[in-house]
Amino acid sequence: MKRIISTAKAPAALGPYSQGVEFNGLIFTAGQIPLDPATGKLVETSFGQRVYQVMHNLEAILQEAGSDFSKVIKTTIFVTDLENYAELNKIYGEFFAGDQAPARSAIQVAGLPLGTDVEIEMIAYK
Fold it and tell me: pLDDT truncated to tens, each residue of the chain (126 aa)?
C-alpha cells in the first residue's frame, strides 16, 4: 500500500508532487533542493551550505517515514557544475558511516528548480 510522507521540517513541494512516498517498506523521496523549510527560500551562502541544507531536508523526510540515513540504499545527485564534486563528496560522506554508503549516481545537468546548483533524491527502507 502507498503512503504519502509529509513533514513541516522539510520544504513544501513546489509543484504537484509529494515530499516522499512509502511503498512496500521502501521510501522514495522527491528531489530536494536547498530550501530552508522555515522561510521557503533558497540557502544562498555557499555551495557547501546548500548541500548541508539538502541533506537536512532529506533527513527530515526520512525521519517522518520512520527511516534514516543508515537505511538509504540509493541516491541520485544532480549538480549544475561537477567542479563542486570534491566538496559535495566531503559533505555527503559526513552523513554515511564508513563502508555503509549507498549506491549513488551523480549527474551534471543544465539547470535545476529555482536556479539552484544541487538536488538530491533518495531511496531508503524502513
Answer: 899 999 999 999 888 999 999 999 999 999 999 999 999 999 989 999 999 999 999 999 999 999 999 999 999 999 999 999 999 999 999 999 778 899 999 999 999 999 999 999 999 999
Topology (CATH) of 2-125: 60s Ribosomal Protein L30; Chain: A; (3.30.1330)
At residue 108, φ and ψ (nearest 5 deg) are -85, 130
pTM over the 0.85 mark: yes
Provide the residue count of the chain: 126
**Amino acid, single-letter form, for residue 9:** K
Instruction: Name residue, grid cell 529555482.
Output: 114
